[in-house]
Amino acid sequence: MADTAETLAAPDFSGWTCPAPLRDQPRVVMGHGGGGALSAELVRYVFAPAFGGEVLSGLADSATVSLGGARLAFSTDSYVVRPLFFPGGSIGDLAVNGTVNDLAMSGATPAYLSCGFILEEGVEMSLVARVAEALGAAARTASVEVVTGDTKVVEAGHGDGLYVNTAGIGLIPDGVDIRPQRAAPGDVVIVSGEIGAHGVAVMSVREGLEFGVEIESDTAALGGLVETVLRVTTDVHVLRDPTRGGLAAALNEIAAASGVGVVLQERAVPVPPAVANACAVLGLDPMYVANEGRLVAFVPRAVAEEVLAAMRAHPLGTGAAVIGECVPDHAGMVVARTGLGGTRVVDLPLGEQLPRIC
């Protein structure tokens, strides 16, 4: 047996091919923008070393900075969703809600936004106006003000209509310390409602798919919901809006940052039947599908029931549910207990199941 083992040659992988993007890609691939492992590697090995800085190293949805004695949350995001309008929203809504939600996930009260438009030569002015009107309406709904901006135009064929960038600032109340590193064993994991609607809504329009019922995006500004939770307790450990990469990516990022294990009850994760059916047809896992109006909260067990009740009393949290807990075991890993009594690893996605959804 030993002689046989010694004669076996090491496998040669040089001629193998793989349909998924390889982790050592010398060029940017779509997966680098998907919020998964490839995105994390791009930030960790290219951007973070180049930019440096202690604040950036936190890698939260928004940075917490001090200025003139005030604690501010500061965030920026770019939006390249295709198509520009979809059931339940548009790129204009996303540009406001996405940045407002990133600020709110630090416990901040969002206040001001900047807005940059990159327009493609030849795009209809009426389309630009519709997006601008949607963006302005979303800002008013979120109680934030667009105070500065910029416009650039690129040659025809280089802009896909238009892209939008927004940055925002908000004030963090005294006594609030919300960041992914604070997740701790014993914390209860709560999601604010049903997941997966946004990604499926965008894909249904993009690909011309029909599922028997129209699925609308959940895009919404979550600042009011966060304020409701903070009125119950300021001791909220983590908040995260599960956008690119879905709930699975958000939970993995939190587990990695805090060094805890996360155990989900798979059947407790709320997925609307229409989204579940669409994902089954498309071969998708709802836990990896993007959301734009949901949050996941890690709170101490002692206040979990009160937080859950407060969420359910808010219009954007009526479907809130406890879906899991933090444990000291399998640090940095997320696992799900299935309805059949088994356990499966919910890993960080490599790229993204549905690109260009925000």
UniProtKB/TrEMBL annotation:
Q: Where is the PurM-like C-terminal domain?
A: 185-331
Concerning its family, UniProt says: Belongs to the HypE family.
Organism field: Actinacidiphila glaucinigra
Q: Which GO terms describe its biological process?
A: protein maturation
Q: Identify the SUPFAM superfamilies for this entry.
A: PurM C-terminal domain-like, PurM N-terminal domain-like
Instruction: From the Swiss-Prot or TrEMBL record, give the protein name.
Output: Hydrogenase maturation protein, carbamoyl dehydratase HypE
> Cross-referenced CDD domains, in alphabetical order?
HypE
Locate the PurM-like N-terminal domain: which residues?
A: 61-172
Q: Which NCBIfam families match?
A: hypE (TIGR02124)
What Pfam families does the database record attribute to this sequence?
AIRS, AIRS_C
